[in-house]
Design goal:
- With 419 residues, the chain is α/β, with parallel strands linked by helices.
- It has two domains: 250 residues, Rossmann fold (3-Layer(aba) Sandwich), CATH 3.40.50.300; 163 residues, CBS-domain (Roll), CATH 3.10.580.
- 32% of the residues lie in helices and 19% in strands.
- It has 15 helices and 16 strands.
- The protein has a six-stranded mixed beta sheet with strand order 6-7-8-3-9-10, with helices on both faces.
- Helix 14 links the parallel strand 14 and strand 15.
- Helix 5 crosses helix 7.
- The protein is globular.
- The two termini are 38 Å apart.
Length: 419
């Protein structure tokens, strides 16, 4: 489940969404795409729509901002009946992100982000300040990326810009249609973590359409499972769906491992991380080694000026040069506090390391998580499930495999990373 603070701990700037008996019929089709949908989404929540192809999840999403007009029913945002409003003005007040990012290819990043604010008449200074803030929010350096064209960026970077553009006019609602479906798995995890961090900071109301149930349970404060015709099979928090499917359809959709699948929503932030010694580029190597030795550490984490990790050399590697180098390890295993334990295991195994670094919502390193700590949590969860069910094999993991992780190459991070 997405970690959500109470309203007293954060500002909720989102608006509630209510669908009242919404129907969508397309000409020439006997059955409606959405038969009669009643749905309430609380302000400041992330809700994930998931279900098989043809269940009406994308149609429902697009009816909220009236890219598709409902045939019957009413839609309220923040108590306003938006079915009576001008659709163009409505869409200017709702953020919208699609799979490919949807950036204008011949516009710079800054011009893309400022598109809606310009339409709304914002002055240049306000747009520039908003653009710089949003690029920082999505983890991109403004000085580096503001003048770039989309073609000169990776898919993940483009998608981050797409999110920034959707947030440019500070809309209360953000709609996302398969936003991370076109990027590689590692980038996808990082984008998911970025979205959760953004939500924690801004408190928007976010609706995400995804075909990936694991993504839905990771992102969603609540998950809406739809079947053909936009029929609501279950609308609940991820744990409830995973441990108590409401219908046979949900049970089949979730899969045979539903009773243990809640492991996929266990968070890195729920596990105590180990402290790390950090070092800045250009620091004298002797000072860094002395600091790490006092802490009992055999390696350090080199961070940039914002505290984001770049590499984790051993003390032997640090000692090979008079100063800490600016080497960037692109295979460095990093997960956020909002990442799932499955994400953490994937990161370690992909990098053949016995641990992963853990970062906060802005990408600053806060510690490390060992594979042993993760497996301890998994074994505890499995034992609890075994005791609760009386039928679950202690040796069975979510997908029916042995829960013991594949052996990793390195027992601790650092070996082979240039200092």
């Amino acid at each position: 489940m997405t970690t959500v603070t109470t309203p007293s701990e954060r500002d909720v700037t989102g608006a509630s969404i209510v669908l009242d008996s919404v129907v969508k019929r397309y000409k020439g089709q006997e059955k409606p795409a959405v038969e009669r949908l009643d749905l309430e989404i609380e302000a400041g929540e992330i809700v994930a729509f998931v279900g098989p192809s043809g269940c009406g999840k994308t149609t429902t999403l697009k009816m909220i901002n009236r890219l598709i007009e409902p045939t019957e029913g009413r839609i309220f945002i923040g108590g306003r009946d938006v079915t009576r409003e001008d659709p163009d003005k409505l869409r200017q007040s709702i953020g919208y992100v699609i799979q490919s990012g949807g950036l204008f290819p011949h516009w710079s990043v800054a011009k893309n982000i400022g598109a809606i604010p310009r339409v709304l008449g914002w002055d240049k200074k306000r747009i520039a300040e908003r653009t710089e803030y949003l690029l920082d929010l999505v983890g991109l350096d403004s000085a580096t990326f503001a003048d770039r064209l989309p073609k000169d960026m990776s898919g993940g970077q483009q998608q981050r810009v797409g999110v920034a553009r959707a947030l440019a006019a500070d809309p209360p609602v953000l709609l996302m249609d398969e936003p991370f479906g076109a990027v590689d798995p590692i980038t996808r995890v990082r984008l998911q973590d970025s979205l959760i961090a953004i939500q924690h900071e801004l408190g928007k109301t976010i609706v995400v359409v995804t075909h990936d149930f694991e993504e839905a349970t990771k992102l969603g404060d609540r998950v809406l499972i739809l079947s053909e015709g936009g029929h609501v099979e279950q609308y609940a928090r991820p744990e409830e769906i995973l441990t108590d499917p409401a219908t046979p359809f949900v049970e089949e959709f979730v899969g045979s491992g539903a009773k243990l699948a809640y492991l996929t929503v266990s968070r890195v932030g729920d596990v105590e991380v180990d402290p790390v010694t950090t070092a800045r580029i250009g620091e004298p190597a002797k000072e860094v080694i002395a600091r790490a030795t006092r802490a009992g550490h055999t390696w350090v984490v080199v961070v940039d000026s914002a505290g984001r990790p770049r590499s984790w050399p051993s003390l032997r590697e640090v000692s090979s040069k008079p100063e800490v180098s600016d080497y960037l390890d692109r295979r460095l295993p990093v997960v956020a506090q909002s990442s799932t334990l499955n994400d953490a295991l994937d990161a370690m195994l992909a990098a053949s390391q016995g641990a992963t670094l853990v970062t906060d919502g802005r990408g600053r390193v806060v510690g490390s998580l060992s594979i042993g700590a993760v497996t301890d949590v998994i074994q505890t969860k499995l034992a609890e499930a075994h005791n609760a069910e009386g039928e679950t094999s202690y040796e069975t993991y979510v997908d029916g495999s042995d829960p013991t992780p594949t052996p990793v190459v390195a027992a601790e991070p650092g070996p082979g990373d240039p200092a």
